[in-house]
Automatic annotation (TrEMBL):
InterPro entries: Arg_MeTrfase, MeTrfase_PRMT7, PRMT_dom, SAM-dependent_MTases_sf. One of its GO terms (cellular component) is nucleus. This is Protein arginine N-methyltransferase 7. GO terms for biological process: cell differentiation; methylation. It is found in: Cytoplasm; Nucleus. Arginine methyltransferase that can both catalyze the formation of omega-N monomethylarginine (MMA) and symmetrical dimethylarginine (sDMA), with a preference for the formation of MMA. Specifically mediates the symmetrical dimethylation of arginine residues in the small nuclear ribonucleoproteins Sm D1 (SNRPD1) and Sm D3 (SNRPD3); such methylation being required for the assembly and biogenesis of snRNP core particles. Specifically mediates the symmetric dimethylation of histone H4 'Arg-3' to form H4R3me2s. Pfam families: PrmA (PF06325), PRMT_C (PF22528). Keywords: Chromatin regulator, Cytoplasm, Differentiation, Methyltransferase, Nucleus, Repeat, S-adenosyl-L-methionine, Transcription, Transcription regulation, Transferase.
Length: 687
């Protein structure tokens, strides 16, 4: 059987449906899954174990048999904990077939097959009764169905159903309760991920300001959660406006309602400022007394000794629909609304009577300006990055002449607007693949409707009539395309440039004139955990899982690099950054592949976890922008990364410890190949 998978084609910029092996989907899912990260999460595992032991004891003390329902068993870990703690029987439910199969093997290997029954079903399909999946209802409910937003993986409907059909009244639940906390902050940095700030352009005829349209200013944005490693956000990047308060709790031992609802709290600002963002995280109490607590609280809230790094649970950033000035001591009301799977917030000055009733809550935010559909949060941040804009302005000033005819190829880009203000008197053209509605608001607000023409043709379908029989003298791109996943996918600009060649003047200026791919060997502080084998977890042998992940990672002949926003994942460089490939946009894409082989020397002692790769764009001869490394900040090799871009990480299959100037290995050889037919990069590293 074959399955179809959607994938962006970097040579066409389009989303294509590829026929893949039937196992492709699940290998991808396992290779990129968070199972390894969860098994490495010592704090989580220890606390689940404590909570499960306590729950089993409470049931036993009542003289009852301990019958456990473990929804979403994954590796079977929590069921094995329960069986070890003396549970009489466990029903381990897992909907994802490859995981259910792995759980069967792991349970068997650890000697629990007579105590644990793995059921490969969604919990809502599980039946109870003499002929059912479960003989009887359980009196202990164990789950780990939470995401960073707590409810995004469907925990609420799953609990609602389980209480109705699968567990006894008064059952013990591990975790017993979850609590969501919020804190109101002002943060220019985070607000810049949600609104477009005015862009200042120093043109020859004075300063021009590009403004965002009112439609964008008043837009509530999109409801998708913004989850980040908040612990990487320095305290200088936000101002706390309120104490941390409890927004709501859910008691998992009682019937749970998943229907939409609202929660409201009163806040007394500790400082005057502009309320822009609600930071939020949760904790879970594994037992009713609250003695076994597992918290996602960020560094400024909890002591560092309680710190556990994890990537499967982070913290949330919620953007208020508008920024609201608040005064120290003057109370405000914060409302959290949720549906079954997501949360959103609003702030009010006074207690509105009609809003008092829970349930009378605001609708889930829907983006009206379309900019929030065109630009994701990092893209907003990138467009608001004044340093970056300045580089483009400087470069454009160098190449634009009063008679330039300019074509811009990038998704949702402000480059045509910059080019217009910087003096190209001829009509600017802009290729736009998405959201011309957002740009029509934008052009109207900036009186540019008749100045910039939007071409909705694909590059290969461009005709001279689109261009009113003019030839393009300046071709610009950031480049940026929404379908790009890995840094080199933005090389689609090169393919588009090749497709429009016949419309370019013979001495056309292409900006960026070229790009280069850079590479560096790094040691991660923590990110290595997500791809590292676990062996045993709390005494249980989970190697089957390690093998399964390894097998999935090797499913494609050459291992792939994966995108990660490295500003969230501290690492140190073990080698100098090295340029490995260059791409000359002044020429068309060659027929042959581009490849590079060489060696990279290790300069620092450390564990080589992998290689990081990123693109640098050379706008003009002496102006470049990096989408990766910004700088190495000290002798220890700590790296600073572009905060608006994801970099490519290629994890080595085994970690190499190095100590330069000793007998230990000090160099890697690499082979990197850019296939011009597919737009993909394959790589291989050897010691
Ligand atoms: N319990 C394991 C794994 C947790 S990951 C551990 O703690 O290590 C959550 C797992 O639950 C995933 O494997 C997912 O496929 C499964 N899952 C989520 N909702 C489910 C449901 N309603 N029924 C069955 N499985 C579910």
């Amino acid at each position: 059987m074959k399955t179809f998978c959607g994938r962006a084609n970097p040579t066409t910029g389009a989303l294509e449906w590829l026929e893949e092996d039937e196992n492709y989907d699940y290998h991808q899912e396992i290779a990129r899954s968070r199972y390894a990260d969860m098994l490495h999460d010592k704090d989580r595992n220890v606390k689940y174990y404590q909570g499960i032991r306590a729950a089993v004891s409470r049931v036993k003390e009542r003289g009852e048999k301990a019958i456990v329902l473990d929804i979403g068993t994954g590796t079977g870990l929590l069921s094995m904990m329960a069986a070890s703690a003396g549970a009489d029987f466990c029903y381990a439910i897992e909907v994802f077939k490859p995981m259910a199969n792995a759980a069967v093997k792991i349970v068997e290997k650890n000697g629990f097959h007579d105590k644990i029954k793995v059921i490969n079903k969604h919990s809502t399909e599980v039946t109870v009764g003499p002929d059912g999946d479960m003989q009887c209802r359980a009196n202990i409910l164990v789950t780990e169905l939470f995401d960073t937003e707590l409810i995004g993986e469907g925990a609420l409907p799953t609990y609602e159903h389980a209480h109705k059909y699968l567990v006894q009244e008064g059952c013990e639940a591990v975790p017993h309760r979850a609590t969501v906390y919020v804190q109101l902050v002002e943060s220019k940095r985070m607000w810049s991920w949600n609104k477009l700030f005015p862009v200042h352009v120093e043109a020859e005829d004075g300063e021009k300001i590009i403004v965002s349209p009112s439609e964008m200013e008043n837009c509530p944005g999109v409801p998708s959660v913004c989850d980040i490693q908040l612990n990487q956000m320095p305290s200088s990047d936000f101002t706390v406006l309120s104490d941390v308060v409890t927004m709501f709790s859910v008691d998992f031992s009682k019937p749970v309602r998943s229907a939409s609802t609202c929660y409201r709290v009163q806040l007394e600002p500790v400082k005057s400022g502009k309320a822009q963002v609600v930071l939020s995280w949760w904790d879970i109490d594994m037992d009713p007394s609250g003695m076994i607590n597992c918290t996602m609280a960020p560094y400024w809230v909890k002591s560092t000794s309680a710190f556990q790094w994890r990537d499967h649970w982070m913290q949330c950033v919620y953007f208020l629909p508008n920024e609201e000035p608040v005064l120290q001591g003057e109370k405000v009301y914060l409302t959290a609304c949720r549906d079954e799977y997501s949360l959103w917030y609003k702030l009010q000055k006074a207690s509105g009577e009609e809003d008092n009733k829970a349930g009378a809550c605001v609708e889930s935010p829907v983006c009206r300006c379309q900019a929030h559909l065109l630009w994701n949060r990092p893209r907003f941040g990138q467009l608001n990055d004044q340093n970056r804009t300045r580089q483009y302005i400087k470069a454009l000033m160098k190449v634009l002449k009063t008679d330039s005819v300019c074509l811009s190829i990038s998704d949702g880009s402000l480059l045509p607007v910059l080019a217009h203000y910087l003096g190209a008197k001829q009509v600017q053209y802009l290729f736009l693949f998405f959201c011309s509605l957002c740009f029509s608001f934008f052009f109207r607000a900036n009186h540019l409707e008749d100045k910039i023409k939007i071409l909705e043709a694909r590059p290969e379908l461009l005709t001279s009539s689109h261009l009113e029989d003019k030839k393009i003298s300046v071709l610009v791109g950031e480049p940026f395309f929404t379908t790009s996943l890995l840094p080199w996918h933005n090389l689609y600009f090169w393919y588009a440039r090749t497709a429009v060649t016949s419309h370019l003047t013979s001495n056309v200026t292409v900006l960026p004139q070229s790009a280069s791919l850079h590479m560096m060997i790094v040691e991660f502080q923590d990110l290595w955990r997500i791809r590292s084998p676990c062996g045993t977890c709390e005494g249980f042998d989970v190697q089957t899982m390690d093998d399964m992940i390894k097998n999935s990672l090797n499913f494609r002949e050459s291992k792939e690099a994966e995108p990660h926003p490295l500003w969230e994942y501290p690492c140190k460089s073990l080698s100098d950054p090295q340029e490995v490939l260059t791409f000359d946009f002044r020429k068309t894409v060659p027929q042959h592949c581009l490849s590079s082989e060489g060696s990279v020397h290790l300069l620092r002692k450390g564990k080589s976890h992998g290689a990081v790769l990123w693109m640098e764009y050379h706008l003009v001869a002496d102006i470049s922008v990096s989408t990766g490394l910004m700088q190495i900040s000290n002798e220890k090799g700590n790296c600073e990364w572009n905060p608006h871009c994801k970099q490519a990480v290629y994890f080595f299959s085994s970690v190499i410890e190095s100590e330069p100037l000793s007998d230990l290995p000090t160099a890697f050889t690499y082979a990197i190949n850019f296939n011009t037919k597919t737009g993909e990069i394959a790589m291989d590293f050897k010691l």
